[in-house]
Write a structure and sequence with these properties.
The protein is α+β, with helices and mostly antiparallel strands and 245 residues long. The chain is built from six helices and 13 strands. It folds into two domains: 132 residues, no CATH class; 104 residues, Immunoglobulin-like, CATH 2.60.40. 22% of the residues lie in helices and 29% in strands. Strands 3-7-6-5 form a four-stranded mixed β-sheet. It has a four-stranded mixed β-sheet with strand order 9-13-12-11, covered by helices on one side. The termini are far apart.
Length: 245
């Protein structure tokens, strides 16, 4: 029976490396077609237990999607190889704190794939890999110029975000103040986190949920500071409240 996990491409060199890892005497057959080499491989197969083939790209990348994402591999044997995910190289080296559950969160994972022979007297063989789950991009969609009419009520500007993460809305009486606040977050003071800057007053910069209700033009900064699974994102909107109709 053949098990295939796909989603990321294998590179040719790594596929050959997998052949070398699990068929050390078959490597020459993978790289050459000369009769003498093929004969030597045939003798090796008769004299040694044969392992199933595991093709395993040793550097793989995925993007966070909120779901478990197992590493990709191709396995020609029955059942499945044992795939273990570790949070650090040290943990993998010590075989400590690993998990067979496919990771969900963005980050770097150090993977060990264990392959056993059907012959119980043959030692376990393994291959190591690094697996990166990247932070997902956040897209904010908002018309750059928006307006409404005064009626005494506060109104929210129109904006969409994908995936649905919480947004910060900040309103300024002029563009200069908005740009000053943006620089404070993009070039933060040492020791100050983006979240703290977003939640404290700085040149009129503060988090609010709704627009002012007075007539006039406001410069709105829509901002998501990013988190452990998502990249930061922002958008600017010029918002005008016109006189009552």
């Amino acid at each position: 029976m053949t098990n295939t996990h796909s989603g990321r491409k294998f590179s040719g060199s790594l596929a050959i490396a997998a052949c070398l890892t699990f068929f050390p005497l078959v490597f020459s057959a993978c790289a050459s077609e000369e009769p003498a080499v093929t004969a030597a491989v045939a003798v090796a197969v008769r004299d040694e237990p044969v392992f199933p083939l595991l093709l395993f790209d040793t550097s793989q990348v995925a993007v966070y999607n909120g779901q478990p994402q197992p590493i990709s591999y191709y396995y020609s044997g029955n059942g499945k190889p044992e795939i273990i995910y570790y949070s650090s190289q040290k943990a993998r080296m010590e075989d400590r704190g690993g998990s067979t559950a496919a990771p969900v969160r963005a980050g770097t994972y150090y993977v060990r794939a264990r392959l056993t022979s059907e012959n119980k007297h043959t030692p376990v063989r393994e291959v190591l890999a690094e697996y990166w789950i990247l932070k997902s991009q956040v897209k904010i969609e908002a018309e750059e110029i928006q307006y409404t009419y005064y009626n005494g009520d506060q109104k929210r500007i129109k904006a969409k975000v994908e995936p649905p993460v919480p947004l910060f809305y900040s309103y300024y009486p002029n563009r200069e103040l908005m740009e000053t606040a943006q620089r404070a977050v993009e070039e933060p003071i040492p020791g100050e986190s983006s979240i703290r800057l977003l939640t404290k007053t700085y040149s009129g910069y503060k988090r609010v949920d709704r627009t002012p209700f007075e007539e006039g033009t406001y410069y709105v900064w829509i901002y998501f500071p990013g988190d452990e699974n998502h990249e930061a994102a922002n958008a600017n909107v010029e918002f005008t409240i016109l006189p009552r109709r």
